Amino acid sequence: MKSWLLLALSMPGAAASVALAQEPPAELAPAADAQGEDEPIRLGEGVITVVPIAVPPMPTPAAVATPAGNTSALGLQVAQIVASDLRNSNVFTPMGPQGLPAVSIPQVTAPDYGFWSGTSAQALVQGAVRANPDGTITVGCHLYDLASRSELTRQDLTVPPAQWRRAAHRCADLVYSRLTGEGAMFDSRVVYVAESGPPGRRIKRLAIMDQDGANHRFLTNGQFTALTPRLSPDNRTITYMTYTDEQPRVFVYDLASGRSRPLVDAPHMTFAPRFSPDSRQIVFSMAVNGNTDVYRISAQGGRPQRLTNAPGIDTGGSFSPDGSRIVFESDRSGGQQLYVMNADGSNQRRISFGGGRYATPSWSPRGNLIAFTKVAGNFRIGVMASDGSGERLLTNGWHDEGPSWAPNGRVLIFFRSAQGSGRGSIWSVDLTGGNERRIPTPLDGSDPAWSAINP
Amino acid sequence: MNKTALRLTALAVALSLTAACGSRRPNQLPPPPGDAATTGETGSPGAGDQSGAPDAPVPGSQADFLRSVPSDRVFFDTDVYALSAEARATLDAQVEYLLRYPNVSVTIEGHADERGTREYNLALGDRRANSVRNYLESRGVAAGRMTTISWGKERPAVEGSTEEAWSRNRRAVTVLPN
């Protein structure tokens, strides 16, 4: 539980001198997190614990034209992406690449500490971009601690030219993980529903993009309404709900082939699909004559196994990261509340007892928290421990709905509906409740789901 | 479940053919949704019927239905799917019409307002559509004539974030073939 609150200050070696803890935390974390209090560093609320970090342009040993552009130009773009990712994390204040001096190839591995020590930066990310004979591109990514004048980590990141942005995201992940102790999050994607048209006949298309909004791609053409996509943890398939043939059903979409197929062979509405952590099972809901229950089925199809049988609406199932349990919402008590059960449906017990209703539960990748939509007047995103304790609300919009976790469990992505027009937009918020940011999309957006780290 | 009109059957066959192989072309421009014509706010005679003769709707058609019954829809309170007395009176008039045309198939659409989460609203719309279907069946409309579909909050009849708009979007609509 405490690890996600802590930066890596206490890690052995030179990292300690990258002083992440110069300023006190903005606020003590709320009750659920209080056990980390004796630790020196926490990712606080808002923009307090930030590290100035220099990200100069990356040189190339030889200017080579590639399908991604000339390596002499790529170095600046890679550095821009690294700086942008680090800035978005709210943990770093990047300097550069604009306005910083060029770095020579020899300096990439032997930084000009004299120069950088004269800046406000505490850490330095340098790198080089080179084209390989086999057509791939390698970004060398080096992280230095400026106080101790030592290298903290380095990695050569080799990618096909079409995936050059991934090398930048992986470099940012390397820096972020080394300095915070948190897992990676930048080399990942978001699947969501792109919306256009008037409210009464909204066009809803499946779409996918990198977590920063780049490489946006529509996956369906909008002929049929598509809803609630989720990527499999192996990032190969998407399960979603579609009104294909006027029949609302769960489908599975194969990213490599672009083909879609129905998941469940039943003459009933199926919806609310989520993958199991091993990508082999899908938990979903089926409405039979007005009664909705939670089921699970092989991702290949076959016979579904019914998990709930309360007279009422049981939906929104979400697996725990070890696959042993499922959190879901049910109105069996009157209004929507959260329940946890074993993955075979046994031992169902309610975990939410605050005022208002609780919906769209999503189990965190770390297993300790469950994110949800809380309905009490407004619709807000919140988290609670998986036993229901320590509830915290993270957003305060008029209608925020449907949280989905970043792969490292530090950030949640959700959608926000505008009062009046109902138009949707995609947002993210830190687990601390700070750093609320809109994710750019070409059209309106809803139902975002964050992927695992790209394989 | 799908004993619908020939038109729908043909459509479904055509669509399932495209579905089998059509998802490979994500870059096509999106055509407009093919289904929304029946889900908007109707209520005025002849709405949605532009092809038939203006003064003589085909008996058993949606246009004729709309001319013959007080309303094609019933409304619900927040999170409620039980039928009010007013809703039952509306449905009684629909029953009278439907018993006159025993070969006409019906789709009952269930809808919710925007103030609910998406998946719960899908389930709620299904409940509402089934409330209507069960009532119609109890009054003598053959179950085999009726299909239900839930649109959750996806197809509001009235735009806006007011109590008035929400009350008109929490509805179940009886839809006949055009």
What is the CATH T-level topology of the largest domain in chain A?
Answer: Neuraminidase
The strand order across the widest sheet of chain B is 1-4-2-3
Strand percentage of chain A: 35-45%
Oligomer: heterodimer
User: How would you describe the shape of chain B?
Assistant: globular
Number of domains of chain B: 1
The value of Rg of chain B in angstroms is: 17 Å
The class by helix and strand makeup of chain B works out as: alpha+beta
Mean pLDDT of chain A: 90
Any guess at the CATH architecture of chain B?
A: 2-Layer Sandwich
- CATH top level of the largest domain in chain A? Mainly Beta
Going by CATH, the architecture of the largest domain in chain A would be 6 Propeller
**Any idea how many domains of chain A?**
2
Number of helices of chain A: 4
H/E order of the elements of chain B?
A: HHEHEHEHE
Main sheet: strand order of chain A: 4-1-5-6-7
Q: Could you estimate the helical fraction of the residues of chain A in percent?
A: under 10%
Structure description:
The complex is a heterodimer of chains A (455) and B (178). By secondary structure, chain A is mostly beta strands. Chain A folds into two domains: 3-180, TolB, N-terminal domain (Rossmann fold, 3-Layer(aba) Sandwich), CATH 3.40.50; 188-453, Neuraminidase. Chain A is 10% helix and 41% strand. Chain A is built from four helices and 31 strands. Chain A has a five-stranded mixed beta sheet. In chain A, strands 10-9-8-31 form a four-stranded antiparallel beta sheet, with no helix packed on it. Chain A has a four-stranded antiparallel beta sheet with strand order 11-12-13-14, with no helix packed on it. In chain A, helix 1 crosses helix 4 (164-180). The longest helix of chain A is centred in the first third of the chain and has 18 residues, at 71-88. The radius of gyration of chain A is 23 Å and the shape is globular. Chain A starts with 50 loop residues before the first strand and ends with a strand. Residues 1-48 of chain A have low confidence and may be disordered. Chain B is an alpha+beta fold and 178 residues long. Chain B has a single domain, classed as OmpA-like domain (60s Ribosomal Protein L30, Chain: A), CATH 3.30.1330.60. Chain B is 38% helix and 12% strand. Chain B is built from five helices and four strands, in the order H-H-E-H-E-H-E-H-E. Chain B has helices spanning 6-22, 62-68, 85-100, 118-138, 163-169; strands at residues 73-75, 106-111, 146-152, 171-175. In chain B, strands 1-4-2-3 form a four-stranded mixed beta sheet. In chain B, helix 4 (118-138) links the parallel strand 2 (106-111) and strand 3 (146-152). Chain B is globular. The two termini of chain B are 20 Å apart. The interface between A and B is large, with 66 and 53 residues.
